[in-house]
Amino acid sequence: MHAKHIVVRGLTKKFGDFTAIDQLNFDVFSGEIFGFLGANGAGKTTAIKILCGLSYPSSGEVNVAGFDVYTQTEQLKMNIGYMSQKFSLYEDMTIYENIRFYGGIYGLGRKELHAKSEQLIRKFGLVNERNSLIADIPQGWKQKIAFSIAILHDPKIIFLDEPTGGVDPITRRQFWELIYEVSGNGITVFVTTHYMDEAEYCHRVSIMDEGKIVAIDTPNNLKSSFGAANMDEVFVKIARGAEK
Amino acid sequence: MRTIFYIIQKEFIQVIRNRVMLPMMIIMPIFQMLVLLYAATLEMKHIELFVVDNDHTEASRTLVSKFEGSSFYMLSGYSASIKEAEKQMKNDKTDIILNISKGFGESLSRGEGTDIQLLINAINGTKAGLINAYSLNVISQFVGEYAKNKGTIVEQSSSAGLDIRYRYWFNPELNFKHFMLPGLLVILVTVMGMALSAISFVKEKELGTIEQINVTPIRKYQFLAGKLLPFWIIALFELAFGLTIGRIFFDIPIRGSLFLLFGFSSVYLLTVMGIGLFFSTITRTQQQIMLLFFFFNIVFILMSGIFTPVESMPQWAQTANILNPLAYFMRVIRMIMLKGSGLQDILKELISLSVYAILILSLAVWRYRKTS
Question: Which fold is adopted by the domain B47-161?
Fold first, then answer.
């Protein structure tokens, strides 16, 4: 088995009286594509924010890329990439300006930055659109660019919070090709999604319900243990089980 | 350092692309200087004078003509009835009633003391004070000349025996614009500096891009410096722009060193922008921060001494002004521009504001949370 890239023990986050996530325990291994599933409000985004160092846990131990989320937040941030459902490129800047800005913030050298942005722009066939404002390009492109920017600094782990929301099936497919590509390069991928077909693409998935992880395994193992034909059925069975 | 450079570059790109911000930066100084300067004037012109003359002598007519001859007054009515005059005053049709009672001329010619009544509309206290001063001036002039012509000595009139000569230092023509323009410049750079950087910060919170920033290893001071410096440069540019307008259109004096003026302004801007950035760390939306600005700026501006001298405010207000950066700048900009004060004269204010800037900027950096 590979090295552990994310170690979570007894992670709890409370907002006042409300317990958003309750005693989470899981590991994510290096190079893995780890799907983090759950219904709306199950606590996925809260958990991902803690793992990225955007929010402190109420209790529990969390170690990401070898760094503690309480004390080594800034080193942790140097080693992760993050792309959120809330779109985070600057709409009033061009594709190239966005790449340059984030690359600069991560401390990429001038030459490296230039080479990387050229490479990115070529890869997506955006040579003619490099000076288009983000506001003027299609949603699918924006998400691909945001994803590429999130891995510009060669992080060990990339966190994707519903990266394919509101995108057509073809673009989603292309997006997953990108995910496989970076995973092949040894980057660990931590992804939340609503689409159960996407869950099938993951090496392992966990399913959250009301702040707790109720299932965690490979998609195939989950399907056989729940006697389900696909991940959709697994999800529905778990959700029904929770309602009882 | 390079990280800060990338943020500054980004901010400038966003300012240039903004369809509201950029025109505002050009229009606001022009508008403030050219329009507000005339609107915010305290200079007295067209004082509406209502004359109630029950005397009908040469003396009373000469006095009235003295008023009419002055460029400040306009005769709004003439009557023998004080009732009529008061009615005019109640309807806000007149600023001052000159009430000359019967026997005025006769007493005067006999060299006895006599009475004139001035009724001044004092809804605007400052204006009333000025009207009073102007009017007394006209009357004493009249009395002086009358006494000379008739060869009588009027005991009651101080000006007959005593000649007081005024000389107004630093603003000899009592040009109100020379006094107000530096004040308006203070407001201009304050509003520009404070609002622009703070709003650009809060806007990132609204759009959610702040999350993408917070997930990077950027240092807190780097991000805030990147938010501050572009607008600091812009605000200093605005000051230069405003000064140029003042120089060209109003021949505003700049007696002190421009270098000192800009040096002081630089420190001042760090303070007000620090306050703005601190506010942006405790608010979530542009609406919230605009309300905060509205409240604080009204208080800051009115207490700064832009219209009324700080020295005539109650002691508690003067003490409270320790925390009002505008009060420091309002004083110093007039000292440098109108009096030609040097570094020695403004050193106290400069040191106070430097300390203020360091404290408030540290507070902003401390309060900004990358991890909540």
Answer: abc type-2 transporter like fold (3.40.1710)
Contacts of A107 in chain B (CB under 8 A): 2-3, 217
Asked if A48 is an interface residue toward chain B (Cβ–Cβ < 8 A), one would say no
Contact B122, B106 (CB under 8 A): no
CATH 3.40.1710.10, chain B: domain bounds: 47-161
For the stretch A180-212, pLDDT in tens is 998 988 899 999 988 888 888 999 999 888 888
CATH number (domain holding residue A212): 3.40.50.300
For B185-199, what is each residue's pLDDT tens digit? Answer: 999 899 888 888 899
Q: How far is A233 from chain B (nearest CA, A)?
A: 34
Tell me if chain A has a CB within 8 Å of the CB of B22. Answer: no
Number of Cβ within 10 Å of residue B163's Cβ equals 8
**Contacts for B37 with CB less than 8 Å, ≥ 6 apart:** B177, B180, B181, B184, B250
Please give the model's pTM, rounded to 2 decimal places.
0.81
The pLDDT assigned to B221 comes to: 93
User: For chain A, what is the domain count?
Assistant: 1
B181 at A interface, C-beta within 8 A: no
A contacts of B213 (beta carbons < 8 Å): 105
Q: What is the ipTM of this complex?
A: 0.88
- Name which of A55, A88, A104 is nearest B208 (Cβ-Cβ): A88
pLDDT lower than 70: segments of chain B: 40-44, 151-175
Q: Are the C-beta atoms of residues A160 and A147 closer than 8 Å to each other?
A: yes
Does the beta-carbon distance from B217 to A87 stay under 8 Å?
no
